[in-house]
Structure formats: structure tokens, C-alpha cells
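User: Can you write out an input/output pair for a complex, sequences first and structure second?

Assistant: Here is one pair. Inputs:
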Amino acid sequence: MSQVPVIEAKSLDLTFETNDGPVQALKDVNLAIGKGEFVSFIGPSGCGKTTFLRCIAALETPTGGELTVNGMTPEEARKARAYGYVFQAAGLYPWRTIAGNIKLPLEIMGFSRAEQEKRVKNVLELVDLEGFGKKYPWQLSGGMQQRASIARSLAFDADILLMDEPFGALDEIVRDHLNEELLKLWARTGKTIGFVTHSIPEAVYLSTKIVVMSPRPGRITDVIDSPLPKERPLDIRDSAQFLEIAHRVREGLRAGHAYD
Amino acid sequence: MINKIGPVLAVLAVIIGLWYLACMPMNIRLALDTAERQGAVITPEGRVNRQEHSAIGLVIKNPQHVAGIWSQKKPRLPAPHQVVAELWRTTMEVKPTSKRSLVLHGWVTLSATGLGFIIGSLSGVLLAIGIVHNRAMDMSVMPWAIASQTIPILAIAPMIIVVLASVGLQGLIPKALISAYLSFFPVVVGMVKGLRSPSHMDLDLMQTWSATRSQIFWKLRMPASAPYLFASLKIGVASSLVGTIVAELPAGGGQGLGARLLSGSYYGQTVQIWAALFATAILAAALVALIGGIEKGVLKRMGLAG
């Protein structure tokens, strides 16, 4: 891993003011993510994993501490197109074709027509959706829609990919397949990926680093650097090493729960 | 389509049947008076003597005069075939320039409705855009828009006509304004809902691309509101027509379907009233169908009709 972290949080705090009083969503979060890492955030609902990802994307503003993305503030990083964001739902516009949806950020960012076409073709290949550009979202399965939304987030060449439970709404078979695809994509593009999930096998299978979080207040309880090799066939999930890491994640989650 | 026609025709047949039946008690007295004047023998004799008998009873006692019920010149309730004949005569047999022509009156009403609808829906869309983008407008415009619709249009229309006439505006414009007054409201309500229909996630996604407000508007809010817009345009166009008709009642000038309705009621020309009423209904149906057709085409092109 490289020396200069791509994403770095130092004693990050975030408190939401709600009608029932303040809610501490993040408390004293310290984390450094290096270039090219695949980092999963795992924990029960309310542990702040999504909130942390949203902070990186400048969709939420921390109330304390420091957060840098590529050495910039999250706001600046966003303007510099540092990251692509993938939500749990594909969020494709029903009135645009798949190609039209992928072009959307490119149009907004002011890419030329020819450049748009070229990039759409590239990313459609990258997610194995060649030939589906002219289809409308409703003509595609849920898994294919989510692949299209990943393609959309890749279209403008951001170095960082932030994914908020991108496969959470898909069935397990499709999810396994997309996990494999995502690893291949990661190997080919060398992007830094932040991945929120609440599936232990998914986190262990995908990540080079697993961040275990717990709720009330949202905080990090364990950071596990995965010793698994970069090349990961699906059946690696039956290996002793895999189960050992999964066990440690589970322990971390349980420790967090003992708090409340 | 075919399996829709059956039920529609069945309902239509029932309505027409009931209508003919309703003509019996409605028109029997008039029919018997006319027949008696022409020398027929009626039981009981004399108009005054019949007053204390029920209408149904009179029908039963004078079955030989039932036919007259459906052919009076100024019946209380005209029979369907009389209305159809009047419609045919005043659209097909009279010159379109004649002031008895429903084509002329229909055109006058249609042009005011069209102009009013355009003014109304444009201002509706603009108000909705303001409401969605400006918090002050969000708080202030809606209550007024709702209040505007609680005022009975029948009460305010003559005043608008009088006020506008005093500043020299007559004819098409005042009618169009009253028509716009009725049609902007459904468009505001539908458009506000439509422009706000994108989810938090859609908006967050736009934010991650640093989209500007105008980009969010044109690329997300506008297309997302299309289905809502068309739904409210359909209601709006029908309200527009009602507004024009109401405006034509006090406007005078003697032209337009509303004026036709009014003059019919002045002179007891019930057949004329019903014919104008049906012309209005047909016009409204045609306008709604037109918007529906445009909606289908646009949504299909947008890929939303799937």
C-alpha cells in the first residue's frame, strides 16, 4: 500500500440535531485508506458506516475532526471528480436508455459528444453490458441495472469508487456473481473502493481491509487487514483462512453490541 | 378495445332507456294539453282537473297519447332523438357562419378555452417552478392558490367581465382569463408534486456530480414531472372549458356555447339547451382525448410508457 493515504479521517465526529435531541452518528473515527485498497465497512444499522461514506462524498458535513480525500477537503475532491458513488438502488432514470444514463454525469461535467460516446462504450464493456446501451432500464434485470449504475459511476474516471450496499437488494446468486465481477473490475482498474455492506462473507471476500463498526455512537471497533491473496476464486470462502477472518469480524461485531 | 366497447354500449343503452322513461312523467301534462287543444279526448278532461293527478297516473290513463311525450316543441325534458336531431341540424345543415350554428358557437368557445388553457397551464408550471425553488414562494403561493379556487367562479366571473370591459377588454381575452383562472390550479398542484418526485437518492447522486440547480432542473426534475404534468393538464383543460362557458353567461355578445345555453333558457328552448350541453360535453371529451394522445406519444418517446 502506498504511503500517502487517499482517504484519511482523524478523530472525525458527526452529530445530527434531531427533534429527539442530538444523535451522535460518528464518534472519534480514525482511518487511513491507501491507494488501490478495497475497504469494506461492516456493522449493524445505525453504526454510521453509510454516514461515513457520505462524509467522504461531501453529502454530510462532519461536526468535528478532519477528513481529507486525495489531500483535499471532501467538497474540493468532489469538484475535482475524485469519486464515483453507487447507491443501493441503481437509480437509473427510466426516461433515459442505459447509454443515456451513463452519459448523464458526462453531460453534467461538460464532456464532448464524441468523448461521451467513447466513454460509454468503454464502461459498458467494463461491466459486461456491451450491446445494452440502447435498452431502457426496465428492460434489464436488477443485477444488470446495478451493473449499469456502476458503469455510470466509472464513466468519468474517478480514482475512488464509493459503494453503499450496492448489492443489498439483489438475491444471493446474483450477488455472488457481481462480487466476482467487481473484484475483476477492481483488479483491472486499480481503483480505491469504499464498500458498505452488512454481509460478513461479502466483506471478507472482497476486501483488503475490513472496518468493523458499532452503533450508538457510531464508531470503529476493529480494522482487519486481510491476508487473503489478491486472486480470489469464489471457493476461497471455504478456506480456513477465510473462516478465520470471518470469525474475527463476527467477534468485532459482537464486542460492539455488548455496549448496549 | 373490442371487449371495452360491449360494456360501454350496454351502459349507454341503459342510460338512453332511462332517459326515454323519464320523459314520460316529465312531459305528459304538456303532451295531454297539446292533444286536448287539438280536439282529442283526455281523461280526466281539462288542464285544471289534471293538476291533482300524479304524472304516472296520467300516463297510465292515456296510453294512446304517450307518443306525444317525445315530440313536444318545448318539452321539459327533450327525448334523446330530439337532442341528436337538433345537434345534427345546427352543425351540419346550418351554415357555419350563421348565429344558429353550433360550429360557430363551438369555435368561439374553443378559441377562448384554448387561449385560457395555454395561459393557465403556463402560469401553473411557472408557479410550480417558483414554489419548488423558492422557500418564500413555497410558503406563500399555495394558500393563495387554494383560496382562489374556493371562490365560486360563478360569482366572480361577472365582476371580472365588468372590470375588464371598463378598461376596454372585451370578447376573447376576459373569457380566456376566467378560463385560465380555473385551469392553472390543477397544473400547479400536479407540477409541484412532479417536480418534487425525484427521490433523495436521485438528488444525492446529482450532488455527487456537482450538478448545478439548473442542470438538476432540466435533467432530473423536468423529465420526472412529465407524467404528473399530463395528468393535471387533462383536468386543467376540462376546467378551462367550464371557465369559458361560465364566462360566456354574463359576457353577452351572444356567441359561444355558454351564450347559447343562456339564450336557450331565456326562451324556454330546452332542446337547444340540451344540444349546447352535449356539444360542450363532446368538446370536453375531445380536448381531454387530445391531451391523452399527446401524453401517450410523449411518454412513449421518453420510454416511460413501457
